[in-house]
Amino acid sequence: AQAQGLISGAPMPSLLANLLPEPLYLSPVDEATVARLSEIERGAVFYAAKELQETQPLERWEVRPGEEPQLERYFAVARGRYAEEVVVRDPYCGVEGPQRRALEDFLRFLRGTVGEMRKLTVHCRELRMSEDRYQPPYRMREAVARQLQEALPGVDVSVNVHTLARSRGFHDRTVDLRLVDADGLPRVQRFELSGGIDRLMRRDTESTIYRYEVRGS
Question: How far is it, in rounded angstroms, from Cα 83 to Cα 175?
């Protein structure tokens, strides 16, 4: 059997000097190793630098208090396109009152921006029972679904209200648009909202919006 070695750019510690007498690039390589390395090389997939950057933010906007959010600009990528599915993840977007109205206003805007919206899925979370606007998950789900179905006729609406006990790590505030391109392939454009939908739709708070394409979607 051939001796094994390691590749390292750092000086070899004296403790290992006798155990690893020479690095791998100086060690003898047998035919089996050559065959295995050739097999790995043939199966390698090469990506352009642009492809490797697709999961990084493509666009970023900051909205300062007092500024009017420019929704048409942020969501221009969806204008006139077929939205196979819209997925909203925001812990507080289903809370009765301003948050729920902001959710409806945002989705009305989005429905008017895309060419067609087929399906909508909303993920939100129940409040603590001690809070004034608390609703049991089943009641919140029914109320949000009914409100959105009335606001978005013809759209398949699904609402998921996560219980507080099982969703303490639910902090996402994202909107995923599964848009179908001219080639018939769907691609997901993800929008991360630093303050959620409520802050996005208000003028008295600041918010940051990031947009990028989800690779492999």
Answer: 12
Query: Are residues 113 and 152 in contact, defined by beta-carbon separation less than 8 angstroms?
Result: no
Strands (E) across the chain are located at: 59-63, 82-89, 116-117, 119-125, 156-162, 174-180, 186-193, 207-214
pTM given for the model: 0.72
Stretch (H or E) spanning 104: helix 98-113
User: What values do phi and psi take at 94, rounded to 5?
Assistant: -95, 0
- Are β-strands 116-117 and 59-63 bridged in parallel, bridged antiparallel, or unpaired? unpaired
Tokens of 132: 């004034």
Give the model's pLDDT for residue 200.
Answer: 94
Predicted local confidence at residue 34, as pLDDT:
78
**Contact call for residues 56 and 212 (beta carbons, < 8 A):** yes
